[in-house]
Amino acid sequence: MSVISRLLAALYKLPKADTYGIVMEKALEIPGKDGMIMRCDRYYPRNNQKLPTLLVRTPYGRKNLGMVYGNLFAERGFQVIVQSCRGTDDSEGTHTPFRGEYEDGMATVEWIKKQAWFDGRLCMAGPSYMGYTQWAVAKDAGEVLKAISTSVTSSEFYTPIHPMHTFSFEVFLQWIQITESLKGSFAAYVKSMMLNKKDSKRLLGICRLRMRIRLSAVGRQVIGMIGCRIRKQVIPGMLLRISERMLKW
Predict the structure, then answer these.
(1) From edge to edge, which strands make up the β-sheet containing 22-31?
(2) 127: Cβ contacts below 8 Å, ≥ 6 apart
(3) Nearest alpha carbon to residue 151 among 166, 130, 174
């Protein structure tokens, strides 16, 4: 049991651990349907492998999440698979957010079902994008999937990223910053979260300044803006209102 594991257990007010003798198998290979390899780490109690399996699929890096999900849950009666999504960490392929999570998730579930240590009980957990990976397979994972635990997430992310069919640059910017910061040390992640809001505002200010300059050149006719998606059904009057609001920045 690490010091961080002990502190996290106290922070989350978790029940007493069943054991502190945890084994970790690193970089296990799970083939996708197209042959690309996704890698995962498996955590389990040294003296008991016939336990429910907790699957966590993440684009945020396995190292730091292993401290939270791997150790804490394995100490309390689970065996845990922490998997790096396609194109992240040392998993092969290209990571395209929100694409292919159904196919890769189902391939992972099928791989788990074939393992000798699997006892027929599977659950999934995690917030944000990790919650999305759960919704992606929840319908078709079959009877082995006994539970999912999601938070701060959605079964579809078009609406929060594209409110009223625009592009929420701030939301996407913060998500990218979190994703990149989690690839480093735990201390670097904490520091990044403390500076997140300040850095985001600074970058948004630069983008708005550039937009003001751009609008000054084209006048009141706004053809498009960075990442903004306007559907054909939007009436010209709405474009004019968007132009006026942007000119007030």
Answers:
(1) 22-31, 37-45, 79-84, 53-58, 122-127, 145-151
(2) 150, 151, 152, 153
(3) 130
Angle at 162 (CA atoms; ends 195, 153), nearest 5 degrees: 65
Q: What residue type is assigned to position 45 of the chain?
A: P
Q: Can you give the residue ranges of every domain in the chain?
A: 3-156, 159-249
Query: What's the CATH number for 3-156?
Result: 3.40.50.1820
* Structure token pair of residue 226: 């960075």
Output the pLDDT for position 212.
Answer: 52
Cross-strand pairs, 55: 81, 124
Say what the pLDDT of residue 198 is. 57
Return the closest-CA partner of residue 56 out of 44, 45, 41, 46. Answer: 41
Q: Which residue in 156, 142, 79 sits closest to 105, CA to CA?
A: 142
pTM: 0.74
Alpha helices (H) in the chain, listed in sequence order:
3-11, 62-65, 72-74, 101-113, 129-138, 158-161, 169-181, 186-218, 236-247
Provide the sign of the torsion angle of the four alpha carbons 142, 133, 136, 103, taken in this order.
negative
Residues 6+ apart with CB under 8 A from 162: 168, 229
SS3 state at 185: coil
